[in-house]
Design a protein that fits this description.
The complex is a heterodimer. Chain A is of the alpha/beta class. Chain A has four helices and seven strands, in the order H-E-E-H-E-E-E-E-H-E-H. Chain A has two domains: about 120 residues, Beta Polymerase, domain 2, CATH 3.30.460.80; about 50 residues, no CATH class. Chain A has a five-stranded mixed beta sheet with strand order 1-2-5-4-3. Chain A has a two-stranded parallel sheet with strand order 6-7. Chain A starts with a helix and ends in a 40-residue tail after the last helix. By secondary structure, chain B is of the alpha/beta class. Chain B has a domain of about 120 residues: Rossmann fold. Chain B contains six helices and five strands. Chain B has a five-stranded parallel beta sheet. Chains A and B meet through loops of A and helix 4 of B.
Chain lengths: ~210, ~190
């Protein structure tokens, strides 16, 4: 791929473009959250760039990042120039607070449900979004399930479960794998009380 | 009570037969099941195979689907039940008339399957009573027929004990032995 897109973006935004790379042809730019909306408008309206197709918007949770816990990732494509770009920015502090970002629904209307999904799953708040509600989870749901600090097995049932006395049988589900298998993070039996998260408890079965 | 169901058919060539009312009702209900298919996920494909001519569960008297729970007496829960679906399933079950039976079709409906997180109800028995569990991901049509016949047995006998379809083949014991090819002899 040509570096045209990244060069034009850097010429426009200067040091607000924090980082770029083009690994195996994937042009990627990390911009400051303050210029997120400006960068999107520029990418769409510049005649040499002409990013007219919104592809995807999502967020990744990096609890170890100090310069913004949530990395919001935007993918764009130009149907006339046939080039792509991945635009990123970082928002939110270590507690997941202050994760505010300008909405780009007024730039590409297709971003509407993607921003709602990102809000639902990660808790990133998009300023200026016309209808920022949960889209996948129900309104009664507390928290944001794809954050790394959401307990992996925590369910929030809408219908109260039957008790074992009601049912007259055992209702407990037996885990299909042991405590030392699968994803360690957030499993309730995996970390003994007082241990630091993710250290593991080898050989422990399902609780 | 168990043996009387056949007496309805036996002796009827003499022009009359005696039975108990419960047995007669059970015998009649057993072959006129009205289905409510609650299909939410990929097991629905297998449900279509079971209900279409190649496997054809109409052979067992469970032909007519009724898309109103008020007119049906067998609830097929086919597929994953997400937490958002749970109130709907509960309401549909409550709208069904007595007597009613419930079949958990596939692993997800039976116990949540491999979904062990915030999205999924770990088995429909957390919400509503279930009569027969059919394991499999998805189950073979033969396993579904086993489940249907179990339901019919329960209807005929009047015993509401929870039951699970057993696998017909145990992979550990019923492995097909592949013969090793014979050594070629030079001509």
């Amino acid at each position: 791929m040509s570096k045209l897109v990244l060069e034009k973006l850097q010429a426009k935004l200067g040091d607000k473009v924090l980082e770029t790379h083009s690994h195996v042809g994937d042009d990627t730019a990390l911009v400051a959250p303050a210029v997120w909306h400006e960068a999107c408008l520029f990418l769409r309206d510049d005649s040499a760039l002409d990013f007219d197709l919104f592809v995807d918007l999502c967020a990744v949770d990096y609890p170890q990042h100090t310069d913004g816990r949530f990395e919001v990732v935007l993918h764009l494509y130009s149907t006339t120039k046939r080039h792509r770009i991945r635009l990123k920015t970082r928002v939110g502090d270590e507690e997941g607070e202050h994760a505010d970002l300008d909405s780009v629904v007024d730039v590409w209307s297709g971003a509407n449900w993607f921003e709602r999904e990102t809000f639902d799953m990660m808790g990133v708040i998009f300023r200026g979004h016309p209808d920022l509600r949960r889209i996948l989870m129900y309104p009664e749901f507390q928290g944001h399930p794809l954050r790394k600090d959401y307990p992996a097995q925590l369910t929030q049932p809408l219908v109260a479960y039957r008790t074992e006395e009601d049912a007259g049988m055992i209702l407990d589900k037996i885990a299909p794998f042991g405590g030392d298998e699968g994803m360690a993070f957030g499993r309730k039996w995996f970390d003994p009380p007082g241990a630091s998260p993710g250290t593991g408890n080898k050989g422990g079965g399902a609780s | 009570m168990t043996a009387t169901t056949t007496k309805v058919l036996e002796g009827s060539e003499q022009g009359f037969a005696t039975t108990k009312l419960d047995s007669l009702l059970g015998w009649a209900r057993k072959y006129s099941l009205f289905n409510y298919p609650f299909v939410t996920a990929c097991c629905g494909m297998e449900f279509m195979a079971v209900s279409s001519p190649r496997y054809d569960f109409a052979r067992f008297g469970a032909e007519a689907p009724r898309f109103s729970p008020r007119q049906s007496d067998l609830l097929w829960v086919v597929g994953t039940i997400s937490q958002r679906q749970a109130p709907i399933l509960r309401r549909i079950y409550e709208q069904m008339m007595e007597p009613r039976w419930v079949m958990a079709f596939g692993t997800c409906a039976s116990c949540g399957g491999f979904y062990d997180n915030y999205t999924t109800v770990p088995g429909l028995d957390k919400i509503i009573p279930c009569d027969v569990y059919v394991p499999g991901c998805p189950p073979r049509p033969e396993a579904v027929f086993d489940g249907l016949l179990l339901i019919q047995d329960k209807i005929a006998s009047g015993v509401r004990k929870v039951s699970v379809v057993k696998p017909r083949q145990d992979p550990a014991t019923d492995l097909v032995q592949i013969n090793t090819p014979k050594k070629r002899t030079k001509p």
